[in-house]
Amino acid sequence: MGRTDRAARAIAASPAAVYAALVDRAAVESWLPPEGMRGRIEHWDPRPGGGFRMVLTYLDPTGSPGKSGDATDVVEVGFAELVPDQRVVQRADFVADDPSFAGTMTMTWQLTPTGAGTQVTVTADDVPPGIDQQDHEGGIASSLEHLAAVVEG
């Protein structure tokens, strides 16, 4: 069993608005890449058993070698569970030759209504050991910041 990383953020939008941004291709492509990266979704099938493939590219690859190529990370994501306005569970596998990035990481996006909007908690279970914990949690926090910008308008 691997490591668990977490991040959370209060977002001033309804759980329905946040959930919609978690399952919309264009929205995911805009908010999921953390700061310093851009993303491109190659295929999209938003249903349990479906998934997507995202290519993440470092804007400045200096000192940030990619897992899948010189300046890229490629991740295959499967949707394990989609519960409208409550939760999205994804299974993510990085495309990499390095065995320290192997294995399936489970990402749970939990949406909890609050008086001011939605508390979004992201839990990443079985994080591959090649992924630095501080960098990963910072990346999740960055994605949450971008998600907030998209849904808060």
From TrEMBL:
InterPro entries: ASHA1/2-like_C, START-like_dom_sf
Stretches assigned to the Activator of Hsp90 ATPase homologue 1/2-like C-terminal domain: 13-152
Gene3D superfamilies: 3.30.530.20
Pfam families attached to this UniProt entry: AHSA1 (PF08327)
Spans traversing the lipid bilayer: none
Similarity comment text for this entry: Belongs to the AHA1 family.
Protein name: SRPBCC domain-containing protein
Source organism per UniProt: Actinomycetospora termitidis
Organism lineage: Bacteria, Bacillati, Actinomycetota, Actinomycetes, Pseudonocardiales
